[in-house]
Write a structure and sequence with these properties.
Strand order of the largest sheet: 2-1-3-4-5
Shape: globular
Oligomer: single chain
Order of helices and strands: EHEHEHEHEH
Number of strands: 5
Largest sheet: 5 strands, parallel
Helix content: 40-55%
CATH class: Alpha Beta
Strand content: 15-25%
């Protein structure tokens, strides 16, 4: 049996972050949550495992797009999925080489995006 992929989930909105973390965990992923870009960068600068960065685009302070850019300094090649509900978020996300995922997120689309990113299906 393969081990579960580790996802760093970043969202400044606590309810959204907890719901997404619960969904990802239910799908069989190991989830580490961060409430800000700065918190996420501290995690990425550690030696903790991380297979995917999954972040909201619109956050106070550091946006998800800036986080995606800066995460590549800490972890070159780390796959990044950015969630957005705005058209301008899509354009910026794609320009940064990240995968854009529209809000609201559902389990099927989330599974498909993570399958594309990781190359393996979720454990559940």
């Amino acid at each position: 049996m393969s081990s579960a992929a580790v996802i760093l989930l970043v969202d400044d909105e606590p309810t959204s972050r907890h719901l997404m973390a619960a969904l990802l965990s239910d799908m069989g992923y190991v989830v580490t949550s961060a409430a800000s870009g700065d918190e996420a960068l501290r995690f990425l600068s550690s030696k903790q495992a991380c297979d995917v960065l999954f972040s909201d685009v619109v956050m106070p302070g550091m946006s998800g797009v800036e986080l995606a850019r800066r995460s590549q300094e800490a972890r070159p090649g780390l796959p990044t999925v950015l969630m957005t509900g705005k058209a301008e978020g899509w354009r910026t996300t794609l320009a940064e080489g990240a995968i854009a995922m529209s809000k609201p997120v559902n389990r099927e689309r989330l599974a498909n995006v993570l399958l594309d990113v990781l190359g393996t299906p979720p454990l559940r």
